[in-house]
Amino acid sequence: MAEPIAIVPDEVLTGEAVALDVQPLGFFLRALGALIDVLVAVGLTLLLAWVSGWMLGQNVVDPGASSILSILVIVVVTIVLPTTVETLTRGRSLGRLAVGGRIVRADGGAAGFRQALIRALVGVLEIWMTLGAIALLVGAFTPRSQRLGDLMAGTYSQRTRTPPLPPNAPLLPPALGEWSQVADVTRLPDRVARRCAQFVRQADRMEPGSRLRQAALLAAEVRPFLSPVPAVDAETLVRAAVAVRRDREYRALLLEDERVGSLLRRTATVPRGFPER
């Protein structure tokens, strides 16, 4: 019996049972994007209302059609325009571009016309008729900050701006090349190794005094687990321990990958048995 697939809150399970690590847009960023869209819509409403008033004043249209123009402006701004923009831009809008968000389906796929129309129709109630109160209340208590329209359409706002990649890890100091060949770092605890790696990544941005103190504290924790201990300063010792541990773990992963590839190739070349007569 196959084991169940565990999905963490920040993962999306596709139709092929592949878990995608995606980040939903936060509540406050999404609220800011919605506010920008609402302000744009209000400005467009005022512009269309002015155009409608000018047309009525110039007798371009029948004065009895003023109510029809008002309804048409409201429908265009609240339903037609949001649906069209989301459909053509695959879930984007001016506000979402500003905050780095995009509306996608629950399985991570691009939202289409049906999802955009449902969101726009429900948005008339939760955004315009209640001044956004329902959207804020529902979004504050849903895991992905989904408003009522998202829950009905099966969508959420995905973060499109990913954080920058961390800088490359520093190389082993050249003076410790021979030491790295015989150094034993296997006893170094994972918690100490993580703190050392974090220090190495941030050392160049630290104040000199704080950098020296932190390096001394970490070196004191590292020395009991290194053999032999090189005669170097505290920061060089920490950097060397991190580099050696990283390089050896990387080589172990490469060897494991080679073993798996060799096993797969060997399995593929084994001739199949002849069918029974």
TrEMBL record:
The keyword Transit peptide does not apply. It comes from the Bacteria. One of its GO terms (cellular component) is membrane. It is found in: Membrane. PANTHER family: SLR0254 PROTEIN. This is RDD family protein. Residues 27-154 form the RDD domain. InterPro entries: RDD. It is a multi-pass membrane protein. The chain crosses the membrane at residues 27-51, 63-85, 117-142. Keywords: Membrane, Transmembrane, Transmembrane helix.
